[in-house]
Each structure stands twice: as structure tokens, then as C-alpha cells.
Amino acid sequence: MLGLTKGLIPTQHQGWIADTWIECDHQRFGGFLKASVEVSFPRFFV
Fold first, then answer.
1. How many whole angstroms separate alpha carbon 16 and alpha carbon 19?
2. Residue 37's closest CA among 23, 26, 21?
3. Distance between CA 2 and CA 23 in Å, rounded?
4. What's the pTM value of the predicted model, to 2 decimals?
5. I need a labelling partner for 30 at 20 to 30 A (CA). Which of 7, 18, 23, 38 fits?
6. Strand pairing report for 28-29 and 32-33
7. What is the SS3 assignment for 46?
8. DSSP assignments along 1-45, one per residue
9. What are phi and psi of 39, to 5 degrees?
10. Predicted confidence (pLDDT) per residue in 10-34, tens digit
């Protein structure tokens, strides 16, 4: 049904949404923590 072959173990995936706005940083929306790109990857914005 899902195109999986018997004996194969499905993998787990993780996704990120990169937000460029700093408003509402560190608040939760639908159980997910919101952090801007500047907070998540500060060394790229020096």
C-alpha cells in the first residue's frame, strides 16, 4: 500500500521551517517552538 518492501524498516525524518521574522520567538504554536533563523543559526548572521 505504501510501496514498502517486506523486511525494510521505515526511516524517521525530521523537517525544519526556517522563519526569518524575530517576532514571537520562543513561543509555541501547535506544540512547536518557534525560533527565527538568526536565533537558530547565529554564526551565519555576524
1. 9
2. 21
3. 39
4. 0.44
5. 38
6. antiparallel
7. coil
8. --SPPTTPPPPP------B---TTTT-EETTEEP-BHHHHSGGGG
9. -80, -40
10. 778 777 777 777 788 888 888 888 8
